[in-house]
Amino acid sequence: MSDIDEALIGSFKRVLINLAHFLPAVLALVVAIAVFALLGAGLSWLVRRLLNRVRFDERAGRVNAAGVTDWSPSHSPTLLVGRVVYWSVVVLGVVVGVSAYDSATSSSHLAPVFLPYLGRSIGAFLIAIVGTLTANYLSRSVLISAANARLQYARMLSVGVKSLVFVFTGAMMLDHLQIGRAIVELGFGILFGGIVLTLALAIGLGSKEIVARSIERNTDKSTPIDQALAHAAGDTSRGVRHF
Amino acid sequence: MAVSDTAMETAQQTTGPAVAVTSLLVCLGNAYSSTSPEAIQPLLGMIRQALAAAANPVGKVSVLFPAEQAEMGTIDQDGITLQPYHSNPDAGSLSLHTAAMWLQMHEWMRTRGSDAGILLGAEAETLSPQTFSGMIHAVAGRGADLAIPRYILPSNQGLLNQAMLAPLTRALFTGRISFPLALDTGFSSRMAERMALAAQRVPAGSRANNILWPVNEAAVAGFELAEVGNTQRDLPPLFGDLSQILREVAGSLFTDIEAKATFWQRTRPAKDTLRVDGEQSVVPAPIELVADQEIDDLISSFRIGYTNLHDIWSLVLPPQTLVSLKRLSQASQENFAITDAVWVRIVYDFVLAHRLRTLSRGHLLGALAPLYLAWVASHLLALREGAVSDGDRLVRAFEADRPYLVSRWRWPDRFNP
Q: Does B309 touch chain A (CB under 8 A)?
């Protein structure tokens, strides 16, 4: 009976000792993240004040008419830079916190496992942001161009482009995170190849007349739009000239 | 604020003091790229006729033309000095005068001591000598800083100008000029300096294809504006699609409106525009009927746009405009009409969205194309039914609704659709 008591007390002591090592480590991690979050907020505020003072939004809009401001139109470039600064400092805080956690607990080896994965997660997150922006931008470009080219199936084309970019982005993210690499490669290859083959077959076989009509219309549009001059002399009805 | 018609009727004189022009600099725009002195002989003939008939004696006349080999040197031909300059291969395809051209023009005028300059666009040889001498007279004899010809175009041409450019310019900048982005422009040395300053504000990399708006610059500077005659002229062929034209021209005007917001938000008294060498009354545009098929195509473009771009339009336009567009998309050809009030709101809301960057500016101007085509179809149908092409009516509608633009410009969220 006394052996059992000793074993239980020993286990309990070890748990308490581990907890005594673990709690300060967690506290160090939380404090590091909190301090860096506050620091990030302060830095972000400072950067935004500075950029507002030098009229960064105005300059960015004037210099780069189709650049970052167009890719994230609902946010001003200043706000974007401010957020990038804030999150960079927070991530730095996480890195410092994890290192502090490792130092506080002699038995833990979190940093060698966590930090590389954190790096990959940030990379995957950036891929997701760029992929989403690209998908939205391209799908809207295709929608507007196709509608202006008078294609009835403009929306379908737009959704198709968006889906392709999302599939591509998702595969890149999973590959970057090293999750199911072989399966992702194989699955992406099959899916992407299948979509392209389907489109090729659909266009080549099923929609050849539509494509022929589209090409015909585009050929007509590639001539000068000054159709008024192109009409035969003596023709009572004339075309329009926009500018 | 509405500009009264009486303001237009002032200064309707065709004569003025015979002030001599010491040095006149005529520059052929980039549309004459890679030309030769022989190729511009018809144009020189027109200039000689104009100078002979000019009310103001002109001293030295220099004609600059773009050439691939600018090293060929100056040539004197019957009192006109011809000088080649390096053509700019990056200039836009719309034969318009860019910031780089204005900057260069000011530099040439400064080094030659020219007191008047004339920029000519493509096909300028078809311009009448009276118009050319009218531009000289406006600047030298009448003290105008900017002289713009008033082209007489058939009702089916220059539609973007009728729909948007002229009404917007006149409503916001009070310059009573019918073609704010004319191919040909006469100006004083101080106007050239002002344009050069405006050109310098454009980033160096985009000066070669950035269009400037001289009428707006002159209005902001308080310079004297003149409109020359009722001019007939051949227009150069245009290449490119409507979206490109909207991006380059309407986009440029929207940007200029944003840059000069402090000017047009204030109510200002109407400023007279000089009329030079023209008829007392404005000659109405000759009516040219358009084929049924073409009007059908325009309406169909709008309907396809409505089906596909409705979500994008709803980011820009308020609900009442969207309801009007819905009705328009369901209307038959006989009832297809977009009212002035709806069109004005559409244009103003797009100007605001351009400023607020509600969506990418390229996308925004692309999404405007079907709406503009709806206006064109409606306009052509109205002309077919015997309506008179009255640009002033649309201008008055733009002027009347200007408070809406000013309010939303100042407090965009208060009126946010």
A: yes
